[in-house]
Design goal:
Radius of gyration: 13 Å
Distance between the termini: 27 Å
Structural class: mainly alpha
Low-confidence stretches: none
Order of helices and strands: HHHHHH
Mean pLDDT: 88
Strand content: under 5%
Number of strands: 0
Number of helices: 6
Shape: globular
Length: about 90
């Protein structure tokens, strides 16, 4: 599935603006539509819209074309920003 990340980010920003202080079902639905996580899992793992935005940025890096080393370098370069998101995702799998 090809994702237009520019359009997705615009829609996500609109959903974040509408969500207020907590991740709501509309915002969770934007992420669950392109992942294997359910709306409820998104809301539980990422209760704050800012976390959902970071998750979307991380997903864009992973799904973007380019080699694995470029992606790793981009993630490592933003480790402080993505660390909490990566930890939450890994706890879901472990």
């Amino acid at each position: 599935m090809t994702i237009d990340w520019g359009k997705f980010q615009q829609e996500l920003d609109q959903a974040i603006d509408g969500a207020g202080d907590r991740t709501d079902s509309k915002l969770a639905g934007k992420i669950s539509a392109i992942t294997r996580l359910s709306d409820e899992e998104i809301e539980s793992l990422f209760p704050y819209p800012a976390e959902v935005k970071k998750l979307a940025e991380l997903m864009e890096i992973v799904r973007r074309s380019g080699d694995q080393n470029e992606k790793i370098n981009k993630i490592v370069g933003n480790a402080e920003e993505f660390g909490g998101i990566i930890l939450k995702l890994l706890t879901k799998f472990v």
